[in-house]
Design brief:
Blueprint: E1 9-15, H1 22-35, E2 40-46, H2 47-54, H3 61-75, E3 82-86, H4 92-101, H5 106-110, H6 113-121, H7 130-133, H8 135-144, E4 150-153, H9 158-175, E5 186-189, H10 217-225, H11 246-254, H12 257-269, H13 274-301, H14 303-332
Helix pairs in contact: 3-13, 4-8, 4-14, 8-9, 10-13, 11-13, 13-14
């Protein structure tokens, strides 16, 4: 009887930001849900990563982590298919981070694009910390401790995966001898449609322009009513262009082909107004979000169900991490065993 081939392993995660929005869903979560049937998936809530910028106030980290997990489960992550856990619940991440930090040159970290970008853009926090400079090493530890083959990322995160590959290569060069300890993970570029927020900019909590996965129908409809549209449509009788309209972008992602055709024809001919167009977009969003919110309600009413899932995920993640750390310590000659 032929043996079943082992599925390739994927690691990905999100920081402990609290309730998720449609941008999180379109940018990552919907792809994760699809990946569960093809890969062996590990999904972590990166609460230690949240501390790299928000270290001064940790009062909401646990609550925010749990909100992320509830949205993951609501969106369709299945604990029977994936390992779902919180980063800090698997302390081996910190041990591997320490060991990798010993071999990672400072120059590698200082050239990471997001390091410079965030130092330049986040002015209200002191980011001149060891933890902020070194967070890509912690990210590498998150990936390598599960010997992930792939990391699903957008274009802006490819540099982080490349750094992880360089760190793995350097570790293997020092300690791998005849056999590499770590596989070099590959970036798995995930398609992400352009998703505007209610003000037309990229949807982001920092802009206050989000539609949350937990927003009830009246809130979704109210947010859509205030959404910016094609600036050329000053009057109801002015023809518009859905291709330059943020509401048009929502239709392209969430609406049916029939609705998109109606929007294209009606907007360009001015036979429909923006209010009608926005109501159709709201219909599509409510149709997407309602089943998620129904699934989420089960866990909100009985939070222990979600904590049980996290406990099982922690156990499974810890087992995989422990096996890797045995290999790492043995390779470095630092095994916990006497011989």
């Amino acid at each position: 009887m032929a043996s079943t081939p082992t599925r390739k392993r994927v690691l990905s995660g999100m920081r402990s930001t609290g309730k998720l929005h449609l941008g999180n869903y379109v940018g990552a979560l919907q792809n994760w849900v699809r990946m569960q049937d093809e890969y062996q998936c590990f999904f972590e809530v990166a609460d230690w990563h949240a501390l790299t910028t928000d270290y001064a106030d940790t009062s909401r980290v646990k609550e925010n982590s749990f909100e992320v997990v509830l949205d993951w489960l609501a969106a369709g992550l299945d604990p029977n298919k994936s390992v779902i856990f919180i980063q800090s619940h698997v302390p081996a991440h910190a041990e591997l981070h320490l060991l990798l930090s010993m071999i990672t040159p400072l120059g590698w970290l200082e050239r990471v694009p997001t390091y410079k970008e965030q130092r330049d853009n986040i002015k209200d926090k002191d980011l001149g910390t060891y933890g902020f400079l070194g967070y890509p090493v912690l990210q590498a530890a998150d990936i390598l401790i599960y010997k992930a083959n792939f990391v699903p990322v957008g274009e802006d995160q490819v540099a982080h995966v490349e750094l992880t590959r360089e760190i793995a290569r350097r570790f293997n060069g020092f300690y791998g001898s005849a056999k590499s300890v770590f596989p070099e993970p590959a970036a798995l570029l995930t398609p992400a449609a352009k998703l505007p927020g209610t003000d037309g900019r990229k949807m982001s909590k920092s802009y206050g322009n989000t539609i949350l996965l937990t927003d009830p129908e009246p809130v979704v409809r109210q947010k859509l009513k205030t959404m910016v549209t094609d600036p050329a449509r000053v009057r109801r009788s002015d023809p518009g262009n859905p291709d330059v309209c943020p509401v048009g972008d929502l239709h392209k992602i969430f609406s049916s082909k029939e609705t998109i055709a109606k929007v294209n024809e009606g907007c360009r001919s001015a036979s429909i107004g923006c209010i009608e167009c926005k109501s159709w977009a709201a219909d599509a969003l409510v149709q997407l979000l309602s089943p998620m919110q129904e699934r989420r309600k089960k866990f909100e009413e009985n939070p222990q169900l979600a904590w049980d899932i996290l406990e099982d995920g922690t156990r499974r993640a810890s087992a995989a991490a422990s096996e890797t750390m045995d290999h790492v310590r043995a390779a470095m000659g630092m095994s916990l065993k006497l011989k």
